[in-house]
């Protein structure tokens, strides 16, 4: 089963000084799941890597996508309708977080790899009582 991955985890994996680096790396090293990343997450991660770590980190991220180390999930029309509902219902989340929720609901995934406990902990998905947030 794929593991849905948020921006914070992807950034933490690249930044050894990030508070979540060790937790993220340790958790993911033991998994054989496909890391699934909504396409909406990619620009956010790329920007943060380039601005905070440098162009080399962004290139490494792009390489991981090109070599299919990460699976990219497109946003479908039904997802956009759900994203619209979510950003209206939960003012504290934006498009990227809402897209993760919409993809999780469509694919019936109840676990999200994220550093964002506050936002994803507040959302009540349609297909589960709540999300399991890892690591």
Topology, pairings included?
Elements: E1 3-5, H1 7-14, H2 21-29, E2 35-38, H3 41-52, H4 55-66, E3 71-73, H5 77-89, H6 95-107, E4 111-113, H7 117-122, E5 132-134
Helix pairs in contact: 1-2, 1-3, 3-4, 5-6
Give your account of this protein's structure.
The protein is α/β, with parallel strands linked by helices and 135 residues long. The chain has one domain: Rossmann fold. A 5-stranded parallel β-sheet has the order 3-2-1-4-5. Strand 4, helix 7 and strand 5 form a beta-alpha-beta unit. Helix 1 crosses helix 2, helix 1 runs parallel beside helix 3 and helix 5 packs across helix 6. It is globular and about 35 Å long. The mean pLDDT is 96.
User: Which architecture does the CATH hierarchy give at level 2?
Assistant: 3-Layer(aba) Sandwich
Strand pairing plus helix content: what structural class?
Answer: alpha/beta
C-alpha termini separation: 16 Å
Q: Kindly provide the radius of gyration, computed on alpha-carbon positions and rounded to a whole number of angstroms.
A: 14 Å
Report the mean per-residue pLDDT as an integer. 96
User: What is the CATH topology descriptor?
Assistant: Rossmann fold
* Order of neighbouring strands in the sheet with most strands: 3-2-1-4-5
Short structural description:
A 5-stranded parallel sheet has the order 3-2-1-4-5. By secondary structure, the chain is an alpha/beta fold. The protein is 54% helix and 12% strand.
């Amino acid at each position: 089963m794929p593991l849905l991955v948020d921006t914070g985890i992807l950034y933490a994996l690249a930044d050894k000084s990030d508070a979540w680096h060790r937790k993220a790396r340790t958790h993911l090293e033991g998994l054989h799941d496909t890391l699934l990343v909504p396409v909406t997450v990619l620009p956010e991660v790329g920007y943060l890597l380039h601005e905070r770590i440098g162009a080399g980190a962004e290139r490494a991220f792009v390489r991981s996508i090109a070599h299919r180390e990460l699976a990219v999930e497109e946003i479908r029309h039904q997802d956009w309708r759900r994203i619209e509902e979510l950003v209206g219902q939960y003012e504290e989340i934006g498009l990227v977080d809402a897209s993760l929720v919409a993809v999780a609901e469509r694919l019936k995934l109840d676990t999200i790899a994220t550093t964002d406990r506050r936002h994803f902990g507040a959302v009540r998905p349609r297909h589960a009582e709540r999300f399991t947030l890892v690591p």
